[in-house]
Amino acid sequence: MITKLNVLIKQDLNSSSLKLPVLFIDNYPFLPLLHYMIDRNTSPSKNEKLIQAWKLFLNFFLVKGNLYNSPKNILSEFIKNLYDGTIGQDGIDHSNLYWEVRNIKNANTIISEINCVFDYFLEINPNATHLNPWRKATTLEQKILTSAWYYKKNNSFFNHLIGKDDKSNNTTKKRSAHQRIPTSFDKLNNTKSFPEEIFSKLLVEGFRNRKNISNSDICKISHETHNIRDILITLLMHYGGLRISEVFHLYVTDVIPVPDDSDDSDDSDDSDDSDIALVRIFHPEYGLPPEDKSINNRKSLFKNRRDWLNKKYGLHPRNILNKDDIYYAGWKNLRLDDQQNQSITIQWFPKSAGKIFLKLWYVYLIERAKHTRLSKKHPYAFVNLEGHPYTIKSYQNARDRAFKRIDLINSTSYGTNTHSHRHAYGQRLADCHVTDKVIMKCMHHNSLKSQLIYTSPTQERVRTELDIAEKKLQEKISKYPSKVDKLSTNASYEIQSILDLENLIRE
Fold first, then answer.
1. Number of domain units in the chain
2. Does one domain contain both 422 and 493?
3. 335-339: long-range contacts at Cβ-Cβ below 8 A with a sequence spacing of 24 or more?
């Protein structure tokens, strides 16, 4: 029986404890994998992938390992079963694993995690037998691998670091039991953005504290009627384009009011209504720590936010916690607006959302102060009723309850999951004809290609635009039939053919 437990590891008396996931086989730890994690100093996310992959492999080995006379054959069969599943055409699985057919990308990830540990085994024990050794690639395989290498190099943010040696190593050899190449498909059409027409309903009716609320004006929402905290989080994702994980790295000090320079009203200088929320998200580890008025020279005392969190509160940044920790929040490699301070700045779109956010933010801070008075001190903006840092899971549960109130389904296919708000932000920018480079800056992508998944037109939009274009062409033909030849040659031929075909059908 294979089980996973989180264990505190202490390498020697002088070292600090390290919390790592460990696989146990009948109460005995699987040490080779543990040694790999420690030696390679792998990240929590990497550890999670390793654990998942090796749990599958070890379970397979225990169930079917005695059926094969060679360890290499076991691995080859394991890989085959990953792709094809273990259930026969008759619906029976004699192994009792009941693996369904896996997505090729997912299966390839599992195989990669298995391979990298096998490579490590060989490094520490050169006499060991590698279950999936490298072999010379065939001519066709070399061509495919070379094409893949060039694509990776041209599209990598670190392409200047990829040298010729990397190419020769990666394009001339292949694993004996190799991964399958995924068939090309258009992911862009599978993405969904949150429907704009129901967003206000989600905020006003979904995140309410009372059943009967007559006023639907978001600017008049109060802490007595609504859950302001969850509304603020949702606004950051929908109108600020943040990922849900990024929201949970926000400190109270990361939100400040600034005058709206574009506000040209006569009383803009004398009214708080002209202020807009300036929201910055700092790198959870390397970002500039908040200014501490009790300390004269903060830069000399604190290297970064990781150092500041540890010394001031005894906490670790949420992105380096174990993935199964309730306070864990991931961090993606963002294109930073401020390299020196390691931060991004939210670009509200539309800008009025930043003003609404600021008004609700002031209301929320009063409530937050009440809850954090007796709790353990921390800098995080969003808290629960006990004053502790709010968690992603808690927000998702609150969001599910909000969906239930308005009879909405939380689903990726419907464009209603948390990430769909970021899609809605990108799609909104594209629909308003914002340039690709500006969208890239707003969404903090490292390349223009990264945003395609967020800005690709939906099938409905494509059909609508084509219908409009077709209508314009037909109007032009009916109005100026003698000038059809002034269109492009191919276009005129195609149009005339369609018109002739229509006439034949009518006859």
1. 4
2. no
3. 335/440, 335/441, 335/444, 335/445, 335/446, 336/283, 336/444, 337/441, 337/444, 338/280
Angle between helices 31-40 and 104-124 (to 10 degrees): 90
Q: What is the pLDDT of residues 264-309, one digit of tens each?
A: 544 444 445 679 999 999 999 999 999 866 555 545 578 899 999 9
> Looking at the structure, do residues 6 and 111 belong to the same domain, yes or no?
yes
Cβ-in-10-Å burial (0-12, 13-18, 19+) of 403 comes to middle
Instruction: Choose the final residue of a domain: 184, 218, 251.
Output: 184
Question: Cα separation of 364 and 229, whole Å?
Answer: 7
Burial class (CB in 10 A: 0-12, 13-18, 19+), 484: middle
Number of residues that this document lists for the chain: 507
Domain that holds residue 486: 459-506
Q: What was the pLDDT predicted at 505?
A: 44
Exposed/middle/buried for 145, CB within 10 Å: 0-12, 13-18, 19+? middle
Q: What angle separates helix 228-238 from helix 352-372, to the nearest 10 degrees? A: 140
Question: Are 230 and 341 members of one domain?
Answer: yes
Q: What is the crossing angle of helices 164-171 and 139-154, to 10°?
A: 140
Nearest-5° Cα angle at 457, 451 to 458: 125
Kindly indicate the confidence band of residue 191, based on its pLDDT and cuts at 50, 70 and 90: low
Same domain assignment for residues 70 and 196: no
Separation of alpha carbons 292 and 310, rounded Å? 15
Which contiguous run of DSSP H or E holds residue 25?
Answer: strand 18-25
d(CA 489, CA 341): 56
Over pLDDT 70: what percentage of the chain? Answer: 68
